[in-house]
Design a protein that fits this description.
466 residues, mainly alpha, two-stranded parallel ribbon, 22 helices, disordered C terminus
């Protein structure tokens, strides 16, 4: 062990570590690994630097390295702030509204109700149950950031450090991912104070035990807060929210491909993220790596996310269109099902405005991940589904969700009359998916025609086959 005085400010481990990392981030000039190892309590063996790094990361707090458990605990802790008990009469009353809402939805669509019962949830329950899906969406960003950090350190480290940093890169990646997940968990915990239901943002966040099914869920405390701001009886607001959530659940049960399709588009977007290592290096010059709060603040600021690439912009357009079609269908079904409610239009308008603007936590998620989960064309999509329903009936309307190649496109949102005319004039039963696809896209009789298949015609639908 070293004979330095641990009580001396000049010799304290924190000061030595801070100075050593400062030199490392500045390019490695004057950086002596054996000196750093000695400052950490080891005598002249730079190979033990890995152990020092491990101690440093542990010193950042168990929450930083606790992985899944730490993230869940943090999300729940944030969600519990200001939470109220959701059991008792309020939960029983909401359950009775769920039964009514299910009957109303069944009157306007033949899509059957799932077997799984909806959940009445507290904020902490919602945060705990939905965090895995948020992580699934955000992990590609966390990995890109962590890899960029490791690559930057390896690039700017002195030659004698290359092997050691290569061995510790996995640990640095884990540290960066843990920090990012902790930041995300805080956002999810805050979001639990804003959302009304499990499908409130358009993506199903709670999986059912049956594979492919999603579960409906309601947050009565947040529903009460939402209804207070409206000049509408609370029961009407609650019933409208219930119908909307149940419609969302039925759609994802009917179109079992839909959730994986959404996650695939999200993955396309996230995988396109390429963090600029030089940018990290510039920022790191003013960053104290021994202060995890500084690192978390940096992650939350979105400063490390680059400009979107063309591929990302295309993925984002696909995502926005699909979210609009999903929420437009839900909005259309909810309008039909709640026609008995005197103030249904007022509640519908309040929810549309709410989705159009987003709350503070949704903005925080956008900043952290660089992704906005907002249906910009909800009104257009709702109107399109209404026109298809009026022209072709509810069965044909719902069967358009049977396959991703049958769902309306952004072109259809721009040209609803042309869409309806195309569907009505096809002369085919659109519930027969194979026949419908043949009519819309044509049959490929030549082996060399693969490159002119469905995807190209979907991307340029301005000249659909007659």
């Amino acid at each position: 062990m070293s004979d330095r005085d641990p009580d001396s400010p000049q010799d304290s481990p924190d000061e030595w570590m801070r100075e050593a990392f400062r030199r490392l981030f500045e390019g490695g000039e004057g950086f002596d690994p054996s000196e750093l190892a000695k400052a950490a309590g080891f005598e002249g063996n730079p190979e033990e630097l890995l152990g020092m790094i491990d101690q440093l990361t542990k010193g950042m707090g168990q929450a930083m390295m606790g992985g899944e458990r730490a993230a869940v605990d943090h999300a729940v802790s944030v969600a519990k702030k200001g939470s109220e008990d959701v059991t008792g009469e309020r939960a029983e009353h909401l359950q009775s509204l769920i039964n009514i809402g299910a009957l109303w939805v069944s009157e306007v669509t033949d899509i059957p109700a799932p077997d799984t019962l909806p959940l009445v949830m507290g904020r902490a329950d919602w945060a705990r149950s939905t965090l895995p899906v948020w992580q699934e969406m955000a992990d590609p960003v966390a990995l890109a950031l962590s890899n960029a950090l490791g690559d930057m350190m390896a690039e700017h480290a002195p030659e004698e450090m290359a092997d050691l940093l290569g061995q510790s890169k996995a640990m640095l990646t884990k540290l960066g991912t843990s920090l990012f997940r902790l930041q995300l968990a805080g956002v999810v915990g805050t979001l639990s104070q804003e959302v009304l239901s499990a499908g409130d943002i358009g993506i199903p966040l709670i999986q059912a035990e049956t594979e492919g099914d999603v579960r409906a869920g309601f947050l009565p405390q947040n529903m009460s807060n939402f209804s207070r701001g409206l000049e509408v009886p609370a029961d009407e607001v609650d019933l409208y929210v219930v119908v909307r959530e149940l419609a969302h659940q039925r759609l994802f049960r009917h179109a079992r491909w839909l959730r994986s399709h959404l996650m695939s588009v999200l993955g396309d977007y996230a995988r396109g993220i390429r963090i600029d290592g030089e940018r990290i290096f510039e920022i790191a010059e003013n960053l104290d790596p021994t202060k995890p709060d500084d690192i978390q603040e940096l992650l939350a600021s979105g400063a490390l996310l680059p400009e979107r690439t063309e591929a990302q912009l295309r993925a984002l357009e696909r995502l926005e269109t699909m979210l609009a079609l999903i929420e437009g269908w839900v909005d259309h079904i909810t309008t039909l099902a709640t026609s008995r409610l005197p103030k249904a239009d007022s509640v519908a308008e309040a929810i549309r405005r709410r989705r159009a603007t987003g709350g503070p936590a949704e903005q925080a998620f956008k900043t952290l991940v660089g992704l906005e989960l907002r249906p910009r064309r909800l009104r257009d999509a709702s109107a399109l589904w209404g026109r298809i329903h009026d022209a072709l009936g509810p069965e044909a309307r719902d069967e358009l969700w049977s396959h991703p190649d049958v769902v309306p496109t952004e072109f259809d949102l721009d040209n609803p009359e042309a869409c309806v005319a195309r569907l009505a004039g096809s002369g085919e039963d659109i519930t027969d998916v194979d026949s419908f696809l043949d009519n819309i896209f044509g049959e490929q009789s030549e082996p060399g025609d693969e490159d002119l298949g469905q995807s190209d015609e979907r991307e340029n639908p301005k000249n659909p086959p007659q």
